[in-house]
Amino acid sequence: MSDKPSVLFVCVHNAGRSQMAAAWLTHLAGDRVEVRSAGSNPGDAVNPAAIAAMAEVGIDISAETPKILTVDAVKESDVCITMGCGDTCPVFPGKRYLDWDLEDPAGQGVEAVRPIRDEIKTLVEGLIKEIAPEKTA
C-alpha cells in the first residue's frame, strides 16, 4: 500500500459523475492522491457532455473509458465514494464510504452538466482538505 491516500469513485455507468470526480481529484490534488473510478454497469463510452463540460475548465477526459467495478479496486482504496449506485459497492472493514447525491448527467446536454461538474469540484475540494491537505513549510 502506498503512503498516499487512494480514492475510488463509483457510479453506475462510470461515464459521467465518477469520471468528472476522478479528473477533478487528479487535477486538484496532483500526485498527493491515488485516483480510481469504476462503474457497477459500465457504459460504452464517457458521456460527451461530461467531456465537453470538463474541457471548458481545461481538463481533458476524452481518452478515458468506463471501467467495471471490481472487489480489488475497493480493497485497494482508502475512500470509496458512490454516486447513485447504492449497495453495489462491496463493503470492507476499515474503508471509508461516502455517498454523494448528484444528479445523473446521462442523456443531458452540456448546459445541464455544468452545474453537476461544479458541484463535484466543490465536493472534491472538501475531500482534498480532509485526506491530502497541502503541506505548509
What's this entry about, in short?
The protein is of the alpha/beta class and 137 residues long. Helices cover 36% and strands 15% of the residues.
What layout of secondary structure does this protein have?
Elements: E1 6-11, H1 17-29, E2 34-39, H2 48-56, H3 71-75, E3 79-82, E4 96-99, H4 110-131
Parallel strand pairs: 1-2, 1-3, 3-4
Helix pairs in contact: 1-4, 2-4
Judged by helices, strands and strand pairing, the structural class is alpha/beta
How much strand? 5-15%
Q: Over the alpha carbons, how many angstroms does the gyration radius reach?
A: 14 Å
Determine the number of helices (DSSP H or I, runs of at least 4 residues): 4
Main β-sheet description: 4 strands, parallel
Record the strand order, biggest sheet: 2-1-3-4
**Runs with pLDDT <50, length 5+?**
none
Terminal CA distance: 26 Å
Shape: globular
Helix content: 25-40%
The mean pLDDT is 92
Sequence of secondary-structure elements = EHEHHEEH
Number of strands: 4
Q: Can you give a write-up of this model?
A:
- It is a single chain.
- With 137 residues, the protein is of the alpha/beta class.
- The protein has 4 helices and 4 strands.
- A 4-stranded parallel beta sheet has the order 2-1-3-4, covered by helices on one side.
- Strand 1, helix 1 (17-29) and strand 2 (34-39) form a beta-alpha-beta unit.
- The relative contact order is 0.24.
